[in-house]
Prior knowledge:
The protein is mainly alpha-helical. 75% of the residues lie in helices and 0% in strands. It is built from nine helices and no strands. α3 packs parallel to α5 (65-77), α5 (65-77) packs antiparallel against α6 and α5 runs parallel beside α7 (99-111).
Amino acid sequence: MFDRLQQPSVNSEAVESQIWEEWSKSGSPSMDLLLQRGRAAMEEQDWASAIGFFTALTDHAPDFAEGWNARATAYYNSGLYGPALADIRTALRLNPRHFGALSGLALILEDLGHPEDAIEVWHKVQELTPYRPAVKEAIERLDKELTGETL
Length: 151
């Protein structure tokens, strides 16, 4: 599927959705249920509950990258950047091509005032998903910021 993302004629959103679907399969119905419940809590912006579900998931399935990425997202939305970064690190160790975790890392780096590092990470995301408009826009925005151009 990653090879298909490199083709300009492909519907990259559809392919990315298929990749996310694969990443969401832990191999255990119980772990998949924890992921679903955590995602449902995030949809309700109940970050504490989401973190609880994802913590149970990472405790019981420590090799499941999406559990770590999901909890990183919940931590990020709670303003807990340190724990989010730690979980992103684990997710990327388990799945180095996790463009969602990389995107989260880039957002945190931007929020923390490190645009040079953020743009470097966005370029890594772009290597994996070259036709995602939001990534291109983030790179262009940061490039303008770093060169002193106004938006």
